[in-house]
Design brief:
The protein is mainly beta. The protein has 2 helices and 17 strands. The strands form 3 sheets. Strands 1, 3, 4, 6, 13, 14, 15 and 17 form an 8-stranded antiparallel β-sheet that branches. It has a 7-stranded antiparallel β-sheet with strand order 2-5-16-7-8-9-12, with no helix packed on it. It has a two-stranded antiparallel ribbon with strand order 10-11.
Amino acid sequence: TYPYYFTIPRLDITTGLLFYYPFNGNTLDESGNSNNSTGYGITLTSDRQGNLNSAYKFDANGDYLEMPGIKALASSEWSYSIWIKMDGLPSYSTFDAFLFSYKNVQYDDDAHLYVDDADDAVKAYLGNIGITGGTNNVVNRKVSTNVQVNTNSWVHLCITHNPAIPRLTFYINGQRVTTANDKFGTTYPVNTPYLISCITNFGNNKGRFFGSADEVYFYDKKLNLNKVKLIYKKK
């Protein structure tokens, strides 16, 4: 008899990683790529495990985190992952909570990940130049997970984008909840920064985030369910 050898593929969450912010007392990138972020008005707070100075709090009064814009979001493959804790629901404060968008976002531009003030659900917003199914123009299209967030509770969110159909996939707490064929339409030059929160005033501080954020990952590829679960379960 001959022994049998099996090769078991090992999952990792480092391949394709462009930046990673664990917020260990600072906003530096720990992916090894030196794609550091910069915080404006945000303050250190405890993370989901109670570790001091290991997450950042946003007070929705113009606070934001600026990240380097290293990919064109409408035309490229990518994944974005973040832990958040809402201190107040958007509907109570009359503003959406933008968790991933361009710095120069204008009215009817894309909001790639946000909590909607209409129903407190996690969504993506496609502006009036977005496209669905690769053919038809879309006006103010919202793609909803139909999952509402609560206050004072940490939740893990991940969105993946692929130029091919299905384009969008949403994960919440390690579970796939929504896929969609809709396409982001906003086109800014590469190197236009990304933001958590918003500095553009649409009225009633729309887009500004009131809560805490931690463990931000950004990849140059579309993650699968197993890798999203690995990030979610990471201590």
